[in-house]
């Protein structure tokens, strides 16, 4: 058996076992059938939601929310991180605040944000942006401070101005860590999006749909949404890894 | 600053108009280490002719790398004088280049971009810039690797790229700080021959620090032997052989024995001024 085939079949072994157990549970009486919706019914709901456009609507709304927040929180995070990395006094002032605020789980801000901003789209965007902000600000700050003195000397030899050193040495050497920050931010933003949709009612979104399905006792629909959240998160992660490999192709391959 | 771009005559010609003369007079360098002042270089005097290749050998701690850093201006805190063509050295400048032991190429730039970045602060027309880059990649034999990233190069190729970067500004003097020290023995011999050819073609004054006496003799018109603590010039050996050289030359072998003798000589008792450091006593060996 080829190595690739073997690793794929190993990856599928566990899900297959879980699905088998699931199907068995769903056949143990009416109560079980409610908690463990039969696979066939889940599949039917999936097809139905796909055909009537509901799945696309909700998935699209969640994706848009997550990516918008990533753009807002991520760019503010990178800008703040650069400022902290370059300017010591700002690092000393802002650093402890960021670290302290980070200890509060995103959903811990929910009561205050609801009080101040209501529960509209703005409030949701604010919370998700905050979740994208932390990993970018911390990684960018670390990256900007990681400039190797040896490479800075090369800049001095060729008479680089401060701006040239920043653009040609500090920024590119911080990029790998900035990308690490963005990929963490992407994962956090996706999780936070589903979280705020579950807790704040929204017009559309996978979390909202999940909540509605739970109220309507449609476990099958909840399951379709859960699977959709998982698969989309995985896909986002993989896509970003590809983008990163393309943009950072100057880096030696890991383990090289 | 004077215009670093100068007309260069073909290599090998000598005359009063040639630039690249380095004059070091009464140079001393002290470091403050844990409150105590330590003398790293003590009264260094050395005159280097335009286009000359000078090798510097010496044990660790003799300040030979410090000397190069002072010449290129990465360190400006010294007593005495360093002059390049009658201009006192103060800070870095494009007329003085340096090749480090580690290639120090920017990993996020291709080889061609790494060479180009050295020209960043030279106002040159685009065609001239591109021609300079192409010429210098050709000079070090990397014409086909302009688009490669540093991690894709072998150690010898990366070091040659670093030499191209250092030479693209056509500096009047190039300092080389153990440029081949990180290479394996076989690559090293090859790049030594390359370096000799590059020096002969470019005609730049070169000052190279090395641990390798064979290398110093193979390349140098003169070999400066330094002694440590404090760093002083112990001897200057003339290598009176035309380039390109034959490694098997009996003169090189005789000079090698002489220099090795100088480097392994125990401090003489009658010198008196040589105070041995208590922590570094080597009294287990018998005094000669």
Short description:
Chain A has 256 residues and is mainly alpha-helical. Chain A contains eleven helices and no strands. Chain B has a single domain, classed as Rossmann fold (3-Layer(aba) Sandwich).
Binned strand content of chain A: under 5%
Number of structural units classed as domains of chain A: 1
Mean pLDDT of chain B equals 83
CATH homologous superfamily heading of chain A: MetI-like
Low-confidence stretches of chain A: none
- Broad CATH class of chain A: Mainly Alpha
The low-pLDDT segments of chain B are: 1-16, 269-288
Question: What strand order characterises the main sheet of chain B?
Answer: 6-7-8-3-9-10
**Strand residues, percent of chain B:** 15-25%
End-to-end distance of chain B: 52 Å
Question: In this structure, how is the largest beta sheet of chain B organized?
Answer: 6 strands, mixed
Q: Within the CATH hierarchy, at the fold level, what is the topology of chain B?
A: Rossmann fold
The largest inter-chain interface, given as chain pair and residues per side, is: A-B, 21 and 22 residues
Given helix and strand content, the structural type of chain A is mainly alpha
What name is given to the CATH topology of chain A? MetI-like fold
Number of strands of chain A: 0
By oligomeric state, this entry counts as: heterodimer
Any guess at the CATH architecture of chain B? Answer: 3-Layer(aba) Sandwich
Structural account:
- The complex is a heterodimer of chains A (256) and B (288).
- With 256 residues, chain A is mainly α.
- Chain A has one domain (42-247): Orthogonal Bundle (MetI-like fold), CATH 1.10.3720.10.
- Helices cover 82% and strands 0% of the residues of chain A.
- In chain A, α9 runs parallel beside α10 (206-215).
- Chain A is globular, with a radius of gyration of 23 Å.
- Chain A starts with a helix and ends in a 9-residue tail after the last helix.
- Chain B is α/β, with parallel strands linked by helices and 288 residues long.
- Chain B has a single domain (22-267), classed as Rossmann fold.
- Helices cover 29% and strands 23% of the residues of chain B.
- Chain B has seven helices and ten strands.
- Chain B has helices at 64-72, 111-117, 126-139, 155-167, 185-202, 213-219, 250-264, and strands at residues 22-33, 36-48, 53-57, 79-84, 87-88, 96-99, 173-177, 205-209, 222-227, 232-238.
- In chain B, the strands form two sheets. A six-stranded mixed sheet of chain B has the order 6-7-8-3-9-10, sandwiched between helices.
- In chain B, β1 and β2 form a beta hairpin.
- The relative contact order of chain B is 0.17.
- Mean pLDDT of chain B is 83; it is low at 1-16 and 269-288.
- At the A-B interface, α8 and α9 of A face loops of B.
